[in-house]
Amino acid sequence: MCEACFVKGIHRFSSADVFAKFEQQLLGTNLQAQGRPAYWPVPAPLTAFEPEAFYRCGTCHQIWALAAPDNAWRGYFLPLEAVRAHQRQRQRSDARIKYYVLAMVTAVLWLILTPLAKVDVTQLSTAFFPNQQKVTAHPLAQVGRWRNS
Question: Which UniProt keyword terms apply here (predicted)?
Answer without folding.
Answer: Membrane, Transmembrane, Transmembrane helix
